[in-house]
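Appendix C. Worked example: Small ribosomal subunit protein uS3c
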Amino acid sequence: MGQKINPLGFRLGTTQSHNSFWFAQLTNFSKNLQEDKKIRDCIKNYIQKNIRISSGVEGVGQIKIQKRIDLIQVTIYMGFPKLLIEGNKPRRIDELQMNMQKKLNCVNRKFNIVITRITNAYKHPNILAEFIAGQLKNRVSFRKAMKKAIELTEQAGTKGVQVQISGRIDGKEIARVEWIREGRVPLQTIRAKIDYCSYTVRTIYGVLGIKVWIFLNK
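Step 2, the predicted output written as structure tokens:
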């Protein structure tokens, strides 16, 4: 019987750290957790609605949140930061901060958004999954999309990558799971630095699930 666990939660405290840094009493824990989800959803929705993306890749790799009494510090790790920075930099970031304050009704706390560039964009599983999702939406063959994604990851300098797509692939009447691996992906080794993401994409045939495991250098 297979025992499945999230690769990131499995490695917390060794090679993986938390994406949110804050302290709360037990009664306020769920409220802070929901607030974190609203912040991440607000950022992703703003990028999808207000920024024209020709390649189909938003480039948001990771969002880290640090909360204090009077300040919420949000760090957005982007593979292509020109989407938010280029052109009207203050206007776009200020508009995003205003949207977040309205959605969360934060009166006593200020928002501070910092954008950090990811050097090798396709070394991050979220950006790679977005690339595959964009290819599938454009009716590209799933095998061709997976092989192209693996090529991009190898060029970024990783030790191994595994990509899995599940659902009604190519519009078939029955759902199935297809996967491909290149290099080493030691999922049972806690010391191995493995990055992982799970991503869903809506196609005309239904929802497909994309999972990406990337074995990084130590």
